[in-house]
Design goal:
globular; six-stranded antiparallel sheet; alpha/beta; nine-stranded mixed sheet
Length: about 425
């Protein structure tokens, strides 16, 4: 038996202004950290306006129930902009449940004046602040007579837990797994994607993209021993009724069927508290098996008929939460399709995986990845390789022609 720890991010589920006011942006904008330096996209942050007596707001967080675990610590993570503390002090406090007292945990004392600044604080006695209903109350305040505003682009609590479980099997006892943090994929890599049929582990490629659930740790160990990097695929935006963790998905998160894919349903990605822990567990499986990266599919539900009223920002918050879970586990992560959100996600993801951008004349939207020094791995199913390979090679994309079954057959562009 061994003691293991794992972390998850939770975001505020409610805000009550007790003094002063806040701008009307939805709380979901706080789940996406996308402002830096002097960025000023007012749709992506919340402004807090003091009255003559200051500002006081209360945020509510719900810590998801997790039987047989202990919460070891909470970490506040925020992205703040406003006056520096010498001019106007803004403070984060947590409500101590037994005493009813507010405890200071962080403030803007190290924040640059009117530049986006990270604020982090670790709480090592979380039991003092989680009530009997698993709720945490955070107060954000300023009592300064100066009536200037402040802004938050991001705010989350990282919940770190521990549990005693049997240790996972070592996927490769002779070689500790490389992490995604160590692997920074670059354009120009050759890759092979295969989800069905017998896998040829001796191909002259740099990267394999294979199914997380259907590929054994032994196969991944073999690929690693040959110097290959391994991307492990799973669906993050849909429920598949043949996967071994189907009992983790409550009916409330299951939406419409995916057209053409029997047994698969869209997920309600607004339910971060339910879905992110499930996806993090899948990523933990990937890390334990020795994968270097993950390829989460169906992360564009907001643009499909899912059965849920998903917004652009709903999808963005979920997709960023996936990157944070992956990077926390030392895994690189790829953005699958979802071309319209590349402008907001390219800085969060480590590579792109695309299907049929040449068929639909959309490939220019992928160029920000290469411009950022990150690879684009692509597939065409219907076009002839001679019609798209020259263009893919000229763009420094790595494309191939495949059958829809994603079996062993391939015509690679390079």
């Amino acid at each position: 038996m061994s003691n293991i720890s794992f972390a998850e991010l939770i975001f505020p589920s409610g805000l009550t202004n007790k003094l002063g006011s806040a701008s009307s942006q939805p709380l979901e904008v706080l789940a996406v950290k996308d402002q830096q330096a002097t960025d000023d996209n007012a749709t992506k942050y919340i402004e807090f306006h003091p009255s003559a007596a200051g500002y006081v707001g209360r945020f509510n967080f719900t810590v998801p129930a997790s039987p047989n675990t202990t919460v070891d610590k909470l970490v506040l993570r925020a992205n703040y902009r406003g006056q520096e503390a010498t001019a106007q002090k803004w403070t984060f406090q947590l409500l101590e449940v037994n005493t009813g007292k507010w405890v200071d945990i962080a403030n803007n004392s190290n924040a640059a004046n009117w530049h986006w600044s990270n604020i982090t604080s670790t709480i090592t006695t979380p039991e003092k602040f989680i009530n009997s209903k698993n709720r945490v109350t955070l107060r954000y305040i300023t009592y300064s007579k100066d009536t200037d505003m402040s802004q938050l682009d991001y705010m989350a609590l990282q919940v770190t837990r521990s549990a005693t479980t049997p240790p996972p099997p070592d996927p490769d006892p002779g070689t500790p797994p490389s992490t995604g943090a160590d692997w920074k994929p670059i354009p120009g890599l050759k890759w092979h994607i295969q989800y069905t049929g017998t896998l040829n582990t001796a191909l002259n490629v740099d990267v394999y993209n294979i199914d997380l659930f259907d590929t054994s740790a032994a196969t991944i160990s073999t690929l690693r021993s040959k110097g290959k990097h391994v991307i492990c695929y799973f669906s993050a935006g849909s429920y598949e009724n043949w996967r071994p963790d189907t009992n983790k998905f409550p009916a409330s998160v299951l939406g419409r069927d995916l057209d053409g894919w029997p047994g698969e349903k869209w997920l309600d990605v607004r339910k971060l508290d339910i879905l992110v822990p499930i996806m993090r567990a899948r990523m933990k499986m990937a890390a334990d098996k020795g994968c270097h990266a993950v390829d989460p599919d169906n992360v564009d539900g907001y643009s499909n008929n899912t059965g849920f009223a998903l917004s652009y920002n709903d999808q963005l918050a979920y997709n960023v939460a996936l990157t944070e879970a992956a990077h926390d586990l030392g895994l690189a992560i790829g953005l699958k399709n979802n071309l319209d959100q590349i402008k907001d996600l390219v800085n969060h993801y480590d590579f792109a995986v695309n299907e049929e951008c040449y068929q639909y004349d959309e490939c220019n939207l992928l160029k920000p990845f290469v411009a950022a020094g990150k690879p684009v791995f692509g597939i065409e199913y219907n076009l002839s390789s001679s019609s798209f390979c020259p263009k893919a090679n000229a763009s420094n994309f790595d494309f191939q022609k495949k059958r829809l079954s994603l079996d062993a057959w391939v015509e690679a562009c390079r």
